[in-house]
Design goal:
- 42% of the residues lie in helices and 17% in strands.
- The chain is of the alpha/beta class.
- The chain has 4 domains: 176 residues, Rossmann fold (3-Layer(aba) Sandwich); 70 residues, no CATH class; 96 residues, Alpha-Beta Complex (Outer Surface Protein A, domain 3), CATH 3.90.930; 101 residues, no CATH class.
- The strands form 5 sheets. Strands 1, 2, 3, 4, 5, 6, 7 and 8 form an 8-stranded mixed sheet that branches. A 3-stranded antiparallel sheet has the order 13-9-14.
- The chain is globular.
Length: 527
């Protein structure tokens, strides 16, 4: 078995945090344009889009977009000269000319920067002063095109009230330590201690501490530093955030997590009571109180834009769909309408779709067989082949209803634009150029796929992906991977003994190569 060495230990200076540059799923024009079109705002086409990101770090969210769309133009600013330098080094290695990464303060942004179709402000708004927050709203108004979109994420009340207590506790304890990695480690140890101390308590406070400890186990160190150790960290009620945005001539368009707006996702009491309220901001503030929401990602637009949040099912015929479904062994063709069929979502048996409806069976089976985005026409065409004699209009109507419902329940990916991916070539595989650069230049295990989603690599895959350039054959790649086992980057054991024989290593790597290639294909990392 190939050992999973501690990535941070191998690749980072122990005196500093490992830096991770990644694309944010929600804060990307590929996704934002889809939401805008669903609610009646025709945001700018991706191919020629102009994008501004405030607080871009090293450009992990925007560099892959610039690489994919050479006729677009992007500006990213960040106050950290170190991060901007990293980003510009990567930009140079990728030979990009359509993106500018600038070290400057948000307060320095003015009309000379120009107008933009998409303005992105992720993980910044809650961590800056009131002066800068006001400037962010001003930029989103003055530097935004007529049909532009502004994405802003922020800590939300009332949910952040609980985390604020946790943050104060973490700050109190961590101030006794000097180095940032040690502070973070001590925060984790602190909540392990608190967990043990409250183990026999069933109080609400004990539950909060248990939940915090579980959260910290899965949270990257960089996120812990941002959430618990930053000098500024302010949270807002949604209604107050929107009121401030309105003062600058902006209006609320939609939540990036659109499923949280969808009342049928809540209890019938909530749905019935809040469904009679026409003010969407008021409804969502009630939902925030009910669910104790702690984080929001709001999309804003110019105040004059006409918005239609009554989602049209007919509009879905112009979109593309992807769903990570796995059919269980009881899916047989022809379909038996008297027998239930089950599909697992994201390979999780606890998250399943079960139906007797033969049209849904055909649709789900088609989605399970295709890991790429399918057009509505292709989805229908592939599905109708599975149920001969079915009425085409009935199938299309069923598809529209079900696809919209699955999307609003956050189970289906929907996009307004198609980004094509290629089938794998096991002899001459080629990985995404940006994912390779993330591995080589940024030395990180999180890479960005062709759909601007983050994918975590194993240590074996971290080294493997850099050799998949469309020129190296499978044998070439395996030979290069043997070098990593020889120099100690990777280790594999058999019956407790480290494998050093080149012949055995070649066999082991060959098998692991096949699995990795399959994953790269499924995760849209191959071009």
């Amino acid at each position: 078995m190939i050992s999973m060495m501690d990535f941070n230990y191998v690749h980072s200076d122990k005196s500093a945090l490992p830096f991770i540059s990644y694309s944010n799923f929600y804060a990307n024009p590929f996704y934002l344009r889809t939401l805008s079109k669903l609610v009646g705002v025709d945001a700018a086409p991706l191919a020629s889009a102009k994008i501004l990101e405030l607080g871009c770090a090293s450009g992990g969210n925007i560099v892959p977009f610039a690489l994919k769309f050479p006729d677009s133009h992007t500006i990213g600013i960040d106050i950290s000269s170190e991060l901007i330098t990293k980003g510009n080094e990567l930009k140079l290695s990728l030979e990009l000319t359509n993106i500018d990464l600038i070290c400057c303060d948000i307060l320095e942004v003015d009309s000379s920067f120009g107008k933009f179709d998409y303005i992105i402000v992720h993980d910044v708004f809650s961590r800056v002063s009131d002066e800068i927050r006001n400037k962010i709203f001003s930029i989103c108004k003055e530097n935004l095109n007529e049909n532009g979109l502004a994405y802003i994420s922020y800590n939300a009340l009332p949910g952040w009230n609980n985390l604020s207590t946790v943050r104060d506790f973490a700050l109190f304890h961590s101030k006794h330590f000097n180095e940032l990695p040690e502070k973070i480690n001590q925060i984790k140890l602190l909540f392990e201690f608190v967990n043990g101390s409250l183990n026999e308590s069933d109080s609400a406070y004990a539950k909060l501490m248990f939940e915090t400890s579980e959260m910290l186990e899965s949270k990257p160190d960089l996120s812990i530093a941002h959430d618990f150790l930053q000098p500024f960290n302010k949270a807002f009620y949604f209604v107050d955030f929107i009121e401030d945005a309105t003062k600058y001539g902006l209006q609320y368009l939609v939540d990036a997590e659109i499923s949280k707006m969808y009342l049928p996702n809540y209890t019938s009491i909530i749905k019935d009571k809040l469904g009679s309220i026409e003010d969407v901001v008021r409804v969502e503030q009630y939902l925030d109180f009910i669910t104790n929401r702690a984080f929001r990602q709001s999309i804003l637009c110019q105040e004059h834009q006409m918005i239609n949040r009554t989602l049209s099912m007919d509009a879905l015929s112009n979109f593309y769909f992807k769903m990570n479904l796995i059919a269980t062994s009881d899916i047989e063709i022809p379909f038996d309408e008297n027998r239930e069929s089950t599909f697992y979502l994201n390979n999780n048996p606890e998250d399943r779709l079960t139906t007797k409806n033969i049209m849904l069976k055909a649709i789900f089976k088609t989605l399970s067989e295709n890991r790429k985005y399918l057009s509505f026409d292709d989805l229908i065409s592939f599905s109708v082949d599975k149920i001969p004699g079915i009425n085409l209009s009935d199938l299309e109507a069923q598809a529209k209803v079900s696809l919209m419902d699955l999307f609003l329940k956050d189970k289906l990916e929907v996009r307004a634009d198609l980004i094509p991916t290629n089938t794998k070539d096991s002899n001459f595989p080629k990985a995404s150029e940006y994912a390779v650069a993330q591995s080589i230049y940024l030395k990180q295990e999180f890479v960005t796929n062709l759909y601007f989603e983050s994918v975590q690599l194993s240590l074996f895959e971290f080294y493997l992906i850099r050799y998949m350039d469309g020129i190296n054959t499978k044998d070439d790649v395996i030979s290069k991977m043997i070098e990593h086992f020889t120099n100690g980057d990777l280790v594999t054991n058999y019956k407790g003994t480290v494998v050093t024989s080149e012949e055995k290593l070649r066999n082991i790597i060959s098998l692991a190569y096949i699995d990795a290639l399959e994953k790269f294909q499924d995760q849209s990392l191959l071009v």
